[in-house]
């Protein structure tokens, strides 16, 4: 651990260089870190309520009350205070918030004697969201992104290490694997592909902690669930895991997260490409054949409304979506560790302003709610839509 600070310093110093040297902590071979991957990390734990989303949803509730909409305001209070969503690490600056999140989880554990599982999405890969435009991030390979991402991952690991009594579930880099499978013809994706595989492998190799459980990203049924994409998806996931093991032979992951930020159902549609459970059942044997014993978590945060025809391009602020089934370990199949809410419902997918730098056509599709603000910022009308269309319905807090 003593070397960590110097590694971070070294990584920062390297950040100007085009090709980065892989960095990894050396660990003693006697330390067995594989056990966390063999358990469902949610089992026996309480889902921690995100303080970030709580704040957003409390403000949304207050706005509704100010407009005299008390029914919806009270439902918003339930979403704010009772329902667990992922915390998103979407830039370097947000790392500084990790201690406050994990201290709150510790405090709840002390007060309630109930163990908390804190869910964090790491979403800062260089040339992120390379095929769409709406969620481009702060790092790029052309600008020293590889070394900067390594420093970013090592700082995240350093923060998590300070809280060994809090269980953390990490989902890594939503959309990345989908782009690696289907979008290599997009120049930004093709150019970033090898770097992105190395970067995700670096993250896996360096986030191996006794109380941290990792899920890679499997996009969703409507993207990778089709016959021609399943095999390539298993190939890419297995390749990334092998790269991680080449850095750290003890590297393990629990499985794959699907449907992050999308709208598909789980086990309510037999159609391939439309249902997450069909996708998971098709993908799991292909991964197992490559030695990757994968379990799954599935985002259902915006999956409440399933009776409309959705195309793969309908990813931006879908105007038919409602909040979906609540986070639980009670899932339709043993392959699924938990239903989760990964995308904080109400944070915008992308702006509808055609003149904005990150404008993407998908955000003005006939199926998108318009007008929409910048990706990641609060979209009050969308939050209200999710509440109104929630299935199962959200109960009022009081
Ligand atoms: C590490 O843990 C795994 C899973 O529990 C077990 O199969 C393996 O034998 C252990 N290895 C060592 C060196 O203890
Ligand atoms: C509350 O807000 C929702 C969503 O904007 C709207 O559909 C509903 O009509 C409003 N109810 C009242 C009583 O204003
Ligand atoms: C953290 O890991 C240690 C060592 O494996 C284990 O004894 C402990 O129960 C874990 N705690 C949590 C909260 O996961
Ligand atoms: C996640 O699940 C919801 C609801 O079941 C679904 O509507 C959505 O498309 C899924 N997202 C992805 C990325 O598959
Ligand atoms: C979905 O089904 C509900 C209940 O049957 C209905 O009210 C709603 O209009 C349907 N939505 C769409 C988009 O078909």
TrEMBL record:
The active site is at 175 (proton donor), 349 (proton acceptor). Substrate binds at residues 88, 220, 223, 262, 315, 343, 347. It comes from the Eukaryota. GO terms for biological process: cellulose catabolic process. Keywords: Carbohydrate metabolism, Cellulose degradation, Glycosidase, Hydrolase, Polysaccharide degradation, Signal. The keyword Transcription regulation does not apply. Residues 1-20 form the signal peptide. Its EC number is 3.2.1.-. GO terms for molecular function: hydrolase activity, hydrolyzing O-glycosyl compounds. Belongs to the glycosyl hydrolase family 6. This is Glucanase. It comes from Serendipita vermifera MAFF 305830.
């Amino acid at each position: 651990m003593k070397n960590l600070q110097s590694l971070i310093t070294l990584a920062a110093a390297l950040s100007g260089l085009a090709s980065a040297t892989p960095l990894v902590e050396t660990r003693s071979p006697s330390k067995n870190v594989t056990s966390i991957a063999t358990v469902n990390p949610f089992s026996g734990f309480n889902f921690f309520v995100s303080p970030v989303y709580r704040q957003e949803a409390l403000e949304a509730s207050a706005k509704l009350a100010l407009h005299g909409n008390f029914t919806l305001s009270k439902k918003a209070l339930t979403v704010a205070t009772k329902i667990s969503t992922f915390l998103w690490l979407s830039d370097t600056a947000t790392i500084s918030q990790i201690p406050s999140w994990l201290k709150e989880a510790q405090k709840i554990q002390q007060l309630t004697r109930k163990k908390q599982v804190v869910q964090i999405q790491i979403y800062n890969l260089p040339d992120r969201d390379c095929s769409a435009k709406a969620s481009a991030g702060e790092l790029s390979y052309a600008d020293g992104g590889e070394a900067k991402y390594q420093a970013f991952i090592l700082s995240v690991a350093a923060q998590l290490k300070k809280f060994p009594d809090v269980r953390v579930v990490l989902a890594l880099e939503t959309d990345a694997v989908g782009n690696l499978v289907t979008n290599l013809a997009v120049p930004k994706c093709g150019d970033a592909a090898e770097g992105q595989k190395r970067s995700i492998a670096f993250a896996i190799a360096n986030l191996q902690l006794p109380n941290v459980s990792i899920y890679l990203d499997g996009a969703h049924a409507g993207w990778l669930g089709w016959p021609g994409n399943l095999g390539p998806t298993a190939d890419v996931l297995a390749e990334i895991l092998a790269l991680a093991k080449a850095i750290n032979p003890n590297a393990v992951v629990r499985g794959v997260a699907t449907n992050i930020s999308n709208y598909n159902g789980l086990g309510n549609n037999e159609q391939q490409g439309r249902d997450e459970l069909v996708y998971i059942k098709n993908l799991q044997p292909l991964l197992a054949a490559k030695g990757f014993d994968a379990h799954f978590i599935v985002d259902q945060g915006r999956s409440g409304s399933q009776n409309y025809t959705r195309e793969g391009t309908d990813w931006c602020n879908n105007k038919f979506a409602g909040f979906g089934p609540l986070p639980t370990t009670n899932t339709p199949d043993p392959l699924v560790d938990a239903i989760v809410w990964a995308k904080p419902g109400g944070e915008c997918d992308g702006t509808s302003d055609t003149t904005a730098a990150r404008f993407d056509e998908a955000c003005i599709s006939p199926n998108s709610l318009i007008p929409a603000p910048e990706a990641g910022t609060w979209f009050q009308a969308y939050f209200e839509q999710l509440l109104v269309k929630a299935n199962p319905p959200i109960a009022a807090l009081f």
